[in-house]
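Example record

Each entry pairs one chain with its bound ligand, protoporphyrin IX containing FE.
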Amino acid sequence: MNPIPTSLYERLGRREGITRITADLMKNHMANPTVKARYENSADLARVERRAVEFFCAGSGGPEAYTGQDMVTTHKGMNISEQEFVAVVDDAMAALKTNDIDAATQNDVLAILWSLKPEVVRV
Ligand code: HEM
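Structure tokens for the complex follow.
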């Protein structure tokens, strides 16, 4: 018998779980020499974190609205490299593991993040 399908939002622990995962993601970025300076230079990191929570909630099937800018507009002109992109994805995967997210769900998130590469790298 197939398990009852559960949305990605629910498997990530809804808004509460996603908020914790995003806090760990930001912590990982600040400890990652490949991308640290990018975030340190942001004028308002608390706003970026808040928007990231909204983005992950909305993008995983939650009821929250994303109030930030689209991915291309956000990252335009930053000249983000493939290496930086991989570093950010690695930080996200590590944050999922820290929060005991199961392997199948980790893979679902990985696929979504990877699909956003053309909207982030060298745009
Ligand atoms: C799939 C990967 C990524 C996703 C889903 C993502 C998502 C986001 C979101 C939702 C925001 C907030 C936008 C807003 O405030 O309107 C943001 C901001 C930002 N992102 Fe990304 N991002 C990704 C990859 C990257 C990479 C690889 C870098 C470079 C290391 C990067 C650097 C930044 C910076 C510096 C900001 C803050 C800009 C500011 O201060 O306004 N992002 N990102």
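Residues 35, 38-39, 42-43, 47-48, 51-52, 55, 68-69, 74-75, 80, 84-85, 88, 113, 116, 120 surround protoporphyrin IX containing FE (CB under 6 Å).
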